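Design a sequence for this backbone.
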């Protein structure tokens, strides 16, 4: 089959590199354009990335020789993955949607827009029904979809099947977030070695609000947010990749610990869709006392599965557990690629 031409906006950043790495050899998508700021434009990707390529392996040779362009909507592709810095992503992504491109974004700017799906295909694929409304806003055949914040994704994956069956009442979550989530060069080594930083600017409001949109419903052309509250505390820890989260949960319906584990283990809504990046199963429950751990568990399902463990009674809410997700794969580039695969499968590209 002819692969679909895709462009990467923000191709030179940490997440942009991850897109290029994950898309190499993709059966449906082929990177034909790399774009970034005017600082990087008009040189080959290999030249621009000298000393900046930080993900495993080398730059794929075909991408290395592409000329980096500016982020203007004159790129030769139908689909753009956006890994743009959030200071510029908002208006640039809009320009592309208006010009008729499909934008699968990883940036926060449009996540909470009333006509933009904040998508996890395993959880809220029905939210894509809002797309015609968005297309009429742009007056084009283009549109934007987004994937959640890298700390929200693991939490939502663990909550989605529980919420469906037992109705979540309250959540308290404390995150221990890996360093790559801060991009490159990220947190200064003198701040983080031998340390934990109990603050990540802007993160807690995202973790408290995005899950409610994703776990809500689309009703009469409007998103109705899920009706429970989340209290989040976000910390940066001395781990390269992987966000571990300690979650306390209150449920409206009674459930045993075995019910919760069964519910997680039965969760595999995409198992017959044959999407190249979809992990099967998307949630793995580890019964050992000391799992999940970032270094040992973050690459489950090629970094696309979330790992849950240490389910136990909570003396204040009902239960508590840990969940782990890979922040630059499931929480960033891999998540946006899976979203685009779902669009392709449903003839929305
Ligand atoms: P990054 O390493 O700082 O990369 C930012 C990218 O944006 C670079 O390609 C940069 O190009 C481009 N850019 C900056 N200003 C621009 C402009 N005026 N016009 C066009 N392009 C411009 O950031 P990152 O860590 O990859 O994150 C990218 C996005 O993903 C952010 O919105 C971030 O919040 C989000 N995110 C990151 C993670 C993570 O784990 N790191 C997870 C989830 C979401 P130049 O190289 O030319 O400056």
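Sequence:
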């Amino acid at each position: 089959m002819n692969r679909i031409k895709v462009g990467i906006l923000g191709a030179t950043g940490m997440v942009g590199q991850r897109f290029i790495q994950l898309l190499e050899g993709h059966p449906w998508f082929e990177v034909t354009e790399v774009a970034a700021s005017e600082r990087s434009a008009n040189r080959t990707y290999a030249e621009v990335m000298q000393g900046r390529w930080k993900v495993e392996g080398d730059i794929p040779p075909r991408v290395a020789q592409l000329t980096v362009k500016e982020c203007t909507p004159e790129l030769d592709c139908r689909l753009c993955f956006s890994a743009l810095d959030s200071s510029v992503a908002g208006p640039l992504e809009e320009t592309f949607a208006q010009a008729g491109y499909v934008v699968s974004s990883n940036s926060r700017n449009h996540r909470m827009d009333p006509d933009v799906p904040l998508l996890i295909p395993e959880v809220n694929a029905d939210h894509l029904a809002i797309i015609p409304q968005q297309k009429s806003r742009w007056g084009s055949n283009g549109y934007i979809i987004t994937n959640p914040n890298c700390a929200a994704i693991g939490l939502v994956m663990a909550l989605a099947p529980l919420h469906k069956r037992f109705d979540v009442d309250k959540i308290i979550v404390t995150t221990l977030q890996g360093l790559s989530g801060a991009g490159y060069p990220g947190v200064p080594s003198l701040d983080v070695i031998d340390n934990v930083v109990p603050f990540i600017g802007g993160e807690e409001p995202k973790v408290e609000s995005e899950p409610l949109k994703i776990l809500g419903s689309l009703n009469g052309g409007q998103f109705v947010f899920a009706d429970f509250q989340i209290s989040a505390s976000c910390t940066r820890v001395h781990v390269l990749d992987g966000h571990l989260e300690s979650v306390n949960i209150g449920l409206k319906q009674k459930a045993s610990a075995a019910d919760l584990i069964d519910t997680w283990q039965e969760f595999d809504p995409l198992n017959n869709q044959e999407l190249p990046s979809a992990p099967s199963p998307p949630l793995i429950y580890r019964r050992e006392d000391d799992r999940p751990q970032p270094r040992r568990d973050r690459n489950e399902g090629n970094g696309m599965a979330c790992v849950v463990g240490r389910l136990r009674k909570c003396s204040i809410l009902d239960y508590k557990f840990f969940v782990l997700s890979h922040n630059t794969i499931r929480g960033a580039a891999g998540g946006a690629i899976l979203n685009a695969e779902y669009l392709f499968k449903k003839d929305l590209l």
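The domain at 150-326 is CATH 3.30.360.10 (Dihydrodipicolinate Reductase; domain 2).
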